[in-house]
Amino acid sequence: MRRVYLKEKKQEKTSLIPKTISIGFFGGLIWGTIAAIAGYFNFTEVTPKSLILRPWLQSAWSDQWLGQFISILIISLISIGLALLYYVLLKKFPGMLPGILAGIVLWFIVFWLLEPIFTNIPPFFELDSDTVVTTVCLFILYSVFIAYSISFAYQQHIGENN
After folding, report:
1. For 4-43, how does the pLDDT look when each residue is reduced to its tens digit (9 = 90+)?
2. Selection from 113, 115, 133 nearest residue 123 by Cα
């Protein structure tokens, strides 16, 4: 009887933070890899390495597969922070619409507000249509993955504790 009580107490105290961290890491890993593949097939001129490494490093290795790989890992780590931010602000909103809106906002932050940081990427109004469409879609898909996964885990956690 005491074991059952302790098990229930442990379940009540479990946090969604470890799950949120893994969702963020794997979201960055999956969608960063897809963005690299989209760049390889020339769907976009903006790839993970052009966002993460190339503005600061102009060495030869940062423009090859190693630079792409390291950039994807850095995006995965940054994605943990974005997932935690989403968890704090929007975890209670189910469905895909919050993720779609978050993806569009994130795209505008990266391509509009942070544009001066990324010197090797053309300015917002000079991006070709393939790059705009592909990156908007990738940002939306990434955000929907994060948002839907976190809100689903939150709703599941609430259901278990009731």
Report:
1. 555 555 554 568 999 999 999 999 999 999 999 999 999 9
2. 115
In Å, how far from its chain's centre is CA 37? 16
Cα 119 to Cα 38, 52, 88, 102, 142: the distances in Å are 21, 11, 32, 25, 24
- The rounded percent of the chain whose pLDDT value lies above 90 is 60
Alpha carbon distance 117, 55 (integer Å): 7
Confidence of residue 124 (pLDDT cuts 50, 70, 90): confident
Q: Taking a C-beta distance cutoff of 8 angstroms, is the pair 103, 82 a contact?
A: no
- Do the Cβ atoms of 70 and 123 come closer than 8 Å? no
Task: Work out the number of other CB atoms within 10 angstroms of the CB of residue 119.
Answer: 9
pLDDT at residue 8, as a whole number = 52
> What pLDDT was estimated at residue 12?
46
Give the torsion sign (CA, 134, 140, 141, 142): positive
pTM: 0.86
The phi, psi pair for 110, rounded to 5°, reads -70, -45
Give, in order, the Cα–Cα distances in Å from 123 to each of 13, 35, 90, 120, 157.
48, 19, 31, 9, 43
